[in-house]
Queue: 2 jobs
Job 1
Amino acid sequence: KVEESSESKLDPSTTDLHIEFKDVSFSYPSRSTPVLTNFSFVLHPGKSLALVGKSGCGKSTALKLLTKFLRCENESIQIDGVSLDEYDTRKWRQMVGVVSQEPCLFTGSIRENICLGRPFTHEQII
């Protein structure tokens, strides 16, 4: 089980959000071969990144690692040079936006789908 929140963890909202995957490798227990092997990238603050590839190449796994739904065996995912494990999980997930390849809209307006029940101003949404 991945830890949800802890007062002793770092607050990610105080970082510059320089994200680095450094030689990330990951295997599911049910698979004989790794999904990711020495996978690396750097995402600079304010920039976007698209993970593109064939089905099964590790795109979703990389996102699950980044959002802490899966855990790396080593500290190879870093935010501003600090292991992702050191950051509060709940606060981290609130800061990360992921656009899936499969669109999913809930009942309601586009605005309500974007806000997901949180009180955002019009300017924050745009």
Job 2
Amino acid sequence: MYVAPPRDTRAIGESPGATDDTRLGECVLAALADAADAAPDRLTDESVVTAVETETVERVVDRRLTVSDTLHERELSREKVARLNVGRELMPFAAAERDRFIPEGYAGGFATFLRTDEVRLSTCGACHGRQVTTCPGCNGKRLTRGAVCSRCEGSGNRTCRTCGGDGESFTLGLVRRRFTGKTAQSLDSGGKPTRIFHGATGQRVEVVPREPADDELKRETERYAVPVTTVSYEYEGESYTVYEVDGRPTATTLPETTSSGGSRLARLLGRR
């Protein structure tokens, strides 16, 4: 299948006695030939437009934003809790109100919410209240390669990084919510080859909000009108069809000629 770039707006063909439909068909043929870098006259002058049909097909896009939640716990020192960035590390809504946060669009992502009923201050689980942990540099032996360990200065211990040396730490209950955007498209091709609509967008007609399912945060349906012109024509006694979909000429097959050397269009596509 050959798909040409969108054709430029141009004057309707000049065939003597041609109807508006015929001129439109010739214009689509010329646009296809131009885009294929073939001489337009060879295709347009030797072709006879037999039928032109214009219509609009509907493209429907269903968008959904689904959510899934995972429970987590995080142990932090008093200082780190005080420095938590609300809005970046934690959402400004409590976990119980997380449905209030509705992202723009339907892109995926993550957000973390605090379970306000699951915030506990207790003995640090990393140092068990000792305020220090075994130095990872010397494994508590105070020496590394016969020299005083530079990481603990020979004490064999390091200030606990979890509680900051307090012996106590906060355990925060968190909900990590994952957002997943899902899109499904359908198009009523009206019996035409579905591949000719590849990449066609159309003009958006309406956006209809839908009731979300239990695992969805929001849902909507977009409807698009896609203009289609179908041109039937004869070339050297054979019948062919070319389409203009959303302003883009496209054809599932291109004509070959019986003249010596073969059609320039066919040669461009590797068909001799």
